[in-house]
Amino acid sequence: MDTALQAPLQPDLQRLLDEHAHRALLRLAVVGSVDDGKSTLIGRLLYECDGLFEDQISAVRKASAKRAAAARTEALAQGLKAAAGGGEEEELDFSLFTDGLRAEREQGITIDVAYRYLSTARRKIIIADTPGHLQYTRNMATGASTADAGVILVDARLGVLPQTRRHAYIASLLGIPYLAVAVNKMDLVGYERATFERIGSELADFARTLGFEGVRLFPVSASRGDNITRPSAHTPWHEGGTLLSWLESLPHQRRLDGAPFRFPVQYVIRPHQDYRGLAGQVASGTVRVGDEVQVLPSGRRTRVEAIDTFDGPREDASATASVTLRLSDDVDVSRGDVLSHMGSPPLSLQHLDAMLVWFGEQSLDATRRYLVKQGTRTTPAQVERVLWRKELEDLSEAPAEVLALNDIGRVRLVCRRPLLCDAYQENRRTGAFIVIDALTHDTVGAGMVLGPAESVSRAGTSLVSQAEREQRLGHAGAIVLLPATPEAVNRAFALERRLFDLGRAVATVAGDVEVALALSRAGLVALVHADAPQLRRVLREEALEARTQWWELNDTETLEQWVEHLTSEAGT
């Protein structure tokens, strides 16, 4: 195209881009039990709001025709001429717009969370299509964790199912304020008003007990488009408008700009001696150049000297901007620390109560050590006890000792290092955490901080001093991290034997952070072998924080060199 023709278009194009950038953003989670029509509803929304490309529509049209042909062939083979039909225009299978995995299309279910984007004249919407199967509840919780509103679907033929209640409860736990109850497949029940009111009232009454700020009911047919983007002539008795109009009428997404300033440090940037910056994402609030801030957990005070970004320096930064902060003082800051304003620090909790959604195939074991990751901080933790498990049928709190797969309950956590957090209801970004199995490195739970433990039983101070232990044993306690190789593990017990013969109090530990630290505090030399990289990193951090002597041996050295190193003046 001639440049002279392009020039007049540029201002209009820029104006369109500016309008689009300033439209309010809504994050939406669509939840419900399996086969309730979530993917079909989202596909219909995308199709009717022009949120799809032509090649996507063409591909789905071909796939829909292929499915219909296969269904006709099967019907003819079984002698069902009426079901075989023929001649009419093929209908689009709207679920194929979101079910992108091959396994999803083969089975006709949603397995993983699928994110889709659409834009209307009034706002931008990011939609999370979450799976409905019980075994994929963990994926559903992931998709709903950042949502500002939710749509929960119910099959008009089946009514409210246990999984429907579970998803509604998880949505409320995750802080979603607005919920739409969409009674789907109304065309299959003849658009009966009584059916809609019975199902809608049952789920709406259940949802209102969960604390949602607003609950709306819609009779819909996702496959036929009733009450999705246009009012349906089949439901003249419904006066609640369409689902799209409800989405466009919701208040602007809840911003974290006005919340207290929180900046979890992700990385310390030191390209040269004249530059030291703290990189991370502003979790909530706003920070400005010149603000007085404190570094937690140390409590050191300083000021923000500069705010650097990829696009250049800025005078301020708000959630959720990724920036680098430079401080006016050279204070000690590392990954996992949190910067906040002086008057509004986060909680520092070592003993805390939390709601926990359990994802692990293996049930929660209160005798086992886990890792808790909150923000940029990871710390070993133990579930002191399960306070209760939520019964989703009647929302009662049942006594429980463990949580199994997909259970939801209240637990009491004891963390090796304090979490710098807020109550989840006050700040979703800093009140959420995940639980990691320290051995398998699997994410086994998602938690929401409730606050300090209601009753904390703290152990008393030992009556045996560190100096007395060193005098009795003849050496100080220490942790020795062995290389994570099979050969090194085999040599661990030989090293233990040699050090024992030399008069050292020594024990071998297989990757348990708490046991290794306890042994070193008791004056023993703990030989630790651990394969998981994160476990090794946590062990290093904990040893340094506890001021415990620490060595990491090299696999290239021989057993004799190890012994010489650990018994030299630089060793034990």
UniProtKB/TrEMBL annotation:
This enzyme's EC code(s): 2.7.7.4
Membrane-crossing residue ranges in chain numbering: none
Record keywords, A-Z: ATP-binding, GTP-binding, Nucleotide-binding, Nucleotidyltransferase, Transferase
Superkingdom of the source species: Bacteria
Any Pfam family: GTP-eEF1A_C
Location of the Tr-type G domain: 23-257
InterPro entries attached to this UniProt entry: CysN_GTP-bd (IPR041757), CysN_II (IPR044138), CysN_NoDQ_III (IPR044139), G_TR_CS (IPR031157), GTP-eEF1A_C (IPR054696), P-loop_NTPase (IPR027417), SO4_adenylTrfase_lsu (IPR011779), T_Tr_GTP-bd_dom (IPR000795)
Xref: PROSITE patterns: G_TR_1, G_TR_2
One GO term (biological process): sulfur compound metabolic process
Gene Ontology MF term list: ATP binding; GTP binding; GTPase activity; sulfate adenylyltransferase (ATP) activity
PANTHER family per UniProt: TRANSLATION FACTOR
Record's protein name: sulfate adenylyltransferase
